[in-house]
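Two proteins were folded this term; both appear here.
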Amino acid sequence: MRHELDYIFRPSSVAVIGASTQKGTIGRETLHNILTAEFNGKVFPVNPKAPVIHSIKSYSTVLDVPDAVDLAIVIVPKTAVKEVVQQCGEKGVKGLVVISAGFSETGHEGRLAEIEIVDICHKYGMRLIGPNCFGVVNTDPGVNLNATFGKTFPKIGNVGHITQSGAMGEAIMSQAKELGIGFSMIASIGNKADISVNDILLYMKDDPRTDVILLYVENFGNPRHFTQIAREISRVKPIVAVKSGRTKLGAKAASSHTGALADVDVGVDALFEQTGVMRVDTVEELFDVAVALSNQPVPKGNRVVVVTNAGGPGILATDALVNNGLDMPQFSSSTIKELKKFSAANASFANPMDMVAGARGLQFRLTLEAVEKDDRYDTIMPIFVPPITIDQMDVAVNIHAALEKTEKTVLSCFFGAGEGSKAMEYLKGHGIPVYIFPEAIAKTLGTISRYRQWLDKPVGKVRTYKVDAEKVQKIIDRNLKGQDGAIVGEQAIEILNAYGIPAAGYRFAATAKEAAEVAGEIGYPVVMKVNTPAILHKTELKAVIVDLRSDKEVRNAFQELQKRVGKLKRGEKFTVAMQKMLQGGVEVVIGMTTVPSFGPLMMFGLGGIYVEVMKDVAFRINPLTDENAKEMIRSLKSYPLLTGFRGAEPVDVALIEETLLRLSQLVRDFDVISEIDINPFICSPERNNCKAVDARFIITQLPAKHK
């Protein structure tokens, strides 16, 4: 059976609805591109006002076309799209690409119109790309489909490209041709009303002609689904993405430390990091990585050797490589011995290997052949600065000859050779990427190296523990009764205990005398917090007094907190919560915030009152695997504080990992919890002393249909 997207990317027939006789219009240029690409199928222009377009018989409507139509390209005014889509459904069309704009990108009315055309598609079993898109391309010689209105038909290759922006699609096609990047398929998906990034990713996963996938995305329709499929695809085909829109989430509106530290871009980084997607910041970097991955294997390690005829670029390369996390081991003794047989006396026998300015093609070839045999390197980086006296083509030919059969990754730099260099084109034509500057190679290798490290990691498992979910549900129901709100204090501690998360218990007192008695029972030193009224951020409002060491200090603290709180609401009675003060250990923060675009975002970091100042935190999208929990903890700059800094005893890191996984399970079980703060969580060498000191849960009741 044919895949449902085959009718879009591998159609037997195409109708261009809105084809035009006027040059320069989208309707004319799209039809022209289909014909000039020599599409291997039938083409039917549709325009009620023109009997012939581009020397081909035209039809008044798609219903008048005598043959079956697999794919319809819709290029009509917004007001006519609904009728055209209805006609396509009646005709039995299987795939639609709606280039017409004016839908959800324009606001509420456009969104309603978009929903109507999607409903028609679902009624007739049609799949839709767009609206407001650039079109689709399939360079397979058996298809030759260029259903876009761009000026460029891309070079045939092994790169699949998905873009939300039509303008970006055109620019990328044009620039990629200049750089020698070839495409298998291109899809501009516009508003993603029906077919999404996820759908096309799955389609490209099974396409034998696609080895690398490039993404340009502005937003995610279903990040949770993306997480599942991207993690699977990244293990067999590299995915490189530019994600635009680094807008901050309204931190002021967040009621937790976790919410204030999280933003949309943090969610994107977490999503890509967990799925192995290589995120780059610019389209230029997207091309740099694409050129490398589409022509060369992923390096087996991060060890690089640089061979150059100029010291300056070699130093630049070294700095950039090291700053991007690459290693530059020195040559083995046997390699140095081989190099000395033919190198100039003043050559450098270190890494980078400077052959000096007089080195010609033969020297490049001999040197590269020698270092290629050295098993200390995974990537070879030839850098050539072309003096006027040396033939660039001779150097290029010898670089290729030396490395033609290597299994190592080769990325070359022709520093200052200039665009249009025949030598550069020669190397590109033989599968060796050429960059203008060494820093671009270093950044590219850094990006790919992180991807390779992700490939090497264990997949990880989502853990499930025996917990008391029924108790948590009762606490939520008892406190909130179907309303939004916060759970703090003793109730918050009970929720943690129900999920096996260790927490310091509370004792309560309503008078200064009672507080002193409680302190004597639990043992000094103690901490006193305002219990009534409920306060989310007690430290900021001076509602906490710590390190109380005598009955007198406890009584004075009670009276001081009572003054700070002031007059209570009618029916409220001032009370305090008392805890044994945990001494020693490291304060961390554990939490969760819900980002609308991504769902629950788990956080771990250095805790205490300075958490929002230090911002030494890590985020991952829920659910967490055991490997995610380990990565979060080990990614902190302050991680050495947990492992025993300057002779200190290491804390129980395994318990922190388990706590993160238990909290992840709590978030999975209760989607009404929108934010969590456990701050501080005291980490100690002794497991019995590792406890949450304070916690708060923000509850947002979901509509019944989402529960």
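Next, the second protein.
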Amino acid sequence: MSLKKLITPSILTLFILVALYTSGIDPVLARSNSTDVNLRKYAEVQQRIIQNHVDEIAIEDLFKNSIRGLVKNVEDTTLVIEGTPLDTLFSDIDVTNLRQSVSKFEKAYLYLKNNSEVEEDMDKRTEDAIIAMFYPLDPHSVYIKPETSEEIQDQFSGRFEGIGIQFQVIDDTITVISAISNGPSDQLGIRSGDRIVQINGESSVGFSEQEVVRNLRGPKGTVVSVGIMRPGHRQLLDFDITRDEIPLYTIDSSYMLDDVTGYIRMNRFAATTHDEFTSAMESLLESDMERLILDLRSNPGGYLDQAVRVTNDFFPRGTRLVATQSRHSRFTSEYRARYNGPYKDLPLIVLVDEGSASGSEIVSGAVQDHDRGLVVGRRTFGKGLVQQQYELPDKSNIRITISRYLTPSGREIQKPFRDGREKYALEIFSREDSASGDVNQFISNVPDSLRYKTSAGREIFGGGGVVPDHIVDLDMSNELFVLMRRNLIGSSLVREFIDEEGEAFRDEWLDRFDDFRADYVWPDTFVDEFVDRVTERGLVVSDTVSTANFEEDTLYLNPEDYERQLPVTLGYMKADLARQVWGNEYFYPVFNDEVDFMVREAMELWLNVKELKALRGQAGVIEW
């Protein structure tokens, strides 16, 4: 029987499987053998790309890249490739449609499976092929492995199922930073400083963070046994913890910076973000908030609809908030404010940096385009692409860019990505160290076609993120902090302090957080111990050092830099102490007081916000 006769019926079956699966009526055939699943998975990925990607993609490029990926990690180094179905230089490469692509891939797949001298892991080889298929696409179109998909889904669904602790692996031991309020661990009395040394009777010392998550998370209602060493107790404490649904919050902190200024730090846009934001705003308004700092630094984005809803809250009904453009009409739309935002008249400052992307740029872009508030910080990442996620038969997922978004002025803030994914991802590290230097260099290269105007006539720029209205160019360098974090000195020292002084500290400060925030200073013994440890790990302070520098494991500082950096480093440890005693939401009030220069500078800019409002009036802008 010819190879063609062997393959053709399989191809026909494959297309039937794909058609049934995409129509949602294939509950039984999903349990076919590995080859069927892999080929079906390959076909569906390619079909999704062709049908949905924002740009038209040559199917031959998808196919050739997939074959290169298929052979990239082949274990049999003696396998003949030239002149076989695995050869992308073979003259018989003529792929113009999905049927041809899948047919040729199946030949390559079966050739590899049947001719390798070693038993290839064809599931992994298929994954390699699919990952490589995405190379010609934009850097945000990606394949997500099954084991990663669940974790990502948890992050953006706003909840997960587990025991409810925040932890850190310190000196190879799982250390509880805090138990999530009213979660399973909190209800059992597990507290900060506890060390989890056993899980289900087996030692957990030496676990990586991924291993901790894998062993402690699990379905609601299931039980996990942990053995805990608690400072001040000689014997191991055993707990049987019934896992439950644990909320994941996207608002890291919300509190009053002073009598009239509210502060909210948002870490991503997930399913619960707008609800959390509304709750935080209501609480701040009850505390007589008259103006707001919205901190979107290091917020990578998330759900488009949540970013739009948060943005809507600052604008009157009908205001253009963002638009999406695609070669597909179904992915092209315009989003306007659907209601009068309850905070449309609230003075506003938005903080951004190079880690602010996507949804963060939608919010800050709309605020800037309409002169609604002041955008402060450093130039944002520059992600102006919208993705749709699709689940595959084996519970893996693909994320495909379906459209570009435009801010209200019509600007596209996506930065270039044609030089490869690695260069694209690392672009933020190649920017000028000085935030103003980076902006000046960026603006000097912006063509006229990417120069826009705000509602009141101010010049703004596209093609590389959101350039803040006010650049924060303070010296944020702190090599002493880097040395501390690199050697886990701060976390270890704070943990030891809680071990030794925790009860006395709680007795004195637990009901007095505001006093702690304003007045607490580390004891001299703590500071001395910290200095001893960083000195042991390579700190050298000398008058002969002109500029701070690392030479391998040694940090050289002059006395002036040392005196400047030490209080900031101690301030970070004070914030860490607050987190471990009061909970995660108490970290940022102390961090912003002791460490964060950008928040301090923003607090000096409220006159600029007032001037923006006047500028809108002068330009005749009645509604944004």
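The chain has four domains: 3-137, 159-247, 251-473, 479-602. The longest strand covers residues 397-406. These notes refer to the second protein only.
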